[in-house]
Amino acid sequence: MDAQEFREFGKEVIDLLADYVENIRDRDVLPSVDPGYLQKMLPEEPPEEPEHWKEIIKDFNDAIMPGITHWHSPQFHAFYPTGNSYASIVGNILSDGLAVVGFSWMASPACTELEVITMNWLGKLLGLPEEFLNCSSGPGGGVIQGSASEATLVGLLVAKDKTIRMHQKDNPDLDGDMFKPKLVAYTSDQCNSSVEKAGLLGSMKMRLLKADSDGRLRGDTLAKAMEEDRAQGLIPCYVVANLGTTGTCAFDPLDELGPVCSEANVWLHVDAAYAGAAFMCPEYRHLMKDIEYADSIVVNAHKWMPVNFDCSAMWVKNGYDIMRAFDVQRIYLDDMKNNMKIPDYRHWQMPLGRRFRSLKLWTVMRIYGAEGLRKHIRTQISLALHFAKLVRADDRFLVEPEPCMGLVCFRLKDGDMITKQLLDNLTKKKKVFMVAGSFRTRYVIRFVICSRLTTENDVNYSWSKIKEEADIIYADKV
Ligand code: PLP
Fold first, then answer.
1. Is residue 85, in this structure, part of any structural domain at all?
2. 178 C-alpha to ligand 1 centroid (Å)
3. In this structure, what CATH number is given to the domain that contains residue 456?
4. ipTM of the complex
């Protein structure tokens, strides 16, 4: 493929994607294919001869598109949002076009420096305390990880390293490895699966402590668990607090968990993967009260900001902790010798290689502006409240718990079975996509405003489909 063909192919693809977005409402949100459908459509062997790009576009439309779940359909209300915007796609194209690998400053100075700048911008936009920012006088700073899962695992590995060093200092005659099996991590039973997985991957026992009836991990529960473990000779090491749980968007009280961690000298990581973006709006910042206690924080720009996957923003209060844990030297990897202001990001993450991800964060923040980003959050929250109002007006339904951010959990008052039937039937019809959750042991349906394209009319449409299905179920019962 030469430059001329690249221009033609690229322009055709931009048109294709713009048409896709503009006409997305014409499609069912869920695909109508069976498992293995694509294997039947595509050849078993790669092509021997070069093919023309037009053939690829044709196969994309004929074979790939039918197997797509349309995450940006206004009727996609499942999981949590994944970011998408034209500004971000263009940022990604620029990054792919340059195709640099920015593991050190030297490997591409702009790649490192734009990440430092955009992470400072974003940190300020979210109202994070200055100590987490690279532009403060301290050793804090931000880094873009591929996912919140990675950020949580990075936090765990750094906490492990730090705790072992601490214990070795107190016991210089002992081998640091003997402390490893004694380390314990804590989070709530409402945590995202990725938090539990971090324990598995990092070989650390992860205790899922019982949250209160509102889904919040309380300080006394954490303190008691640590006390029990210490009594058995174990060593509390890492705590993951959740600001916006995946199930019901509950917020753990940092003003309770923070002092417990601080007193025990335990690393506190804050998982605000979804809801953290709301801190751009000052009216939601009370939900991160006492964030100063945290050692690390993750907010997925690729969730509730219009930034395409992957762009997981992580800040640490002390970059030296992370560099000490992950610093492996080689003669061919010349670096900045622990210069905190211009970090060599390979010491801040698990892989060596890294993409120029800050470009899309930069294009998004500039094209939207802070006001545009805040408007995105506020619009989505007001659409969720609109949906809750529609549900509450129908006395067969119950909204529970109180809607939070862009999430509304609801159920039929007649019980779990019928609520599940409603969700199953809706999923089969493919017009509206939601997934289940649970609240106080009851089965609930989670309705999340996900697509940036969703309007009040779209929410009304989704609700009309839900109501229609409930009518059918109740009609069949009589
Ligand atoms: N934490 C929370 C609260 C989430 O809701 C999710 C995903 O929905 C994650 C972590 C995992 O995010 P990622 O896919 O970036 O690892």
1. no
2. 32
3. 3.90.1150.10
4. 0.99
Cis peptide before 458 (omega within 30 of 0): no
> 417 and 335, same structural domain?
no
- Give pTM, 2 decimals: 0.96
Residues 5-55 have pLDDT tens digits of: 999 999 999 999 999 999 999 999 999 999 999 999 999 999 999 999 999
Please identify, by atom number, the ligand 1 atom nearest to the C-alpha of residue 244: 3
The angle formed by the CA atoms of residues 29, 35 and 41, to the nearest 5 degrees, is 95
How many domains does the chain contain in total? Answer: 3
Q: Which of 145, 246, 308, 349, when mutated, tests ligand 1's pocket best, judged by the most ligand atoms within 8 Å of its CB?
A: 246
Nearest to 199 by CA among 239, 147, 243: 239
Q: Is residue 27 in some structural domain?
A: yes
Distance from residue 474's CA to the centre of ligand 1 (Å)? 36
Measured from CB, residues less than 6 Å from any atom of ligand 1 are 79-80, 147-149, 192, 194, 244, 246, 271, 273-274, 300, 312
Q: Could you read off the pLDDT of 287-332 as tens digits, one per residue?
A: 999 999 999 999 999 999 999 999 999 999 999 999 999 888 887 7
Residue 299 Cα to ligand 1 midpoint, Å, equals 9
- Measured over all CA atoms, what is the biggest interatomic distance in the chain, rounded to whole angstroms? 78
CA 90/CA 76 separation, integer angstroms: 24
Give phi and psi for 446, each to the nearest 5: -95, 125
pLDDT at 190 over 70: yes
Q: Is 7 helix (H, G, I), strand (E, B) or coil?
A: helix
Measured between alpha carbons, how far apart are the two ends of the chain, in Å?
65
Distance 11 CA to ligand 1 centre (A): 33
- Please tell me the distance between residue 387's alpha carbon and the centre of ligand 1 in angstroms: 24
Among 149, 300, 309, 312, which residue has the most ligand 1 atoms within 8 Å of its CB, making it the best to mutate? 300
Report pLDDT for 457: 98
d(CA 397, CA 411): 6
Same domain, 342 and 379: no
Determine the distance separating the centroid of ligand 1 and the alpha carbon of 271, expressed in angstroms. Answer: 8
Could you tell me if 24 and 137 lie in one domain? Answer: no
CB 418 within 8 A of CB 257: no
CB atoms within 10 A of CB 259: 14
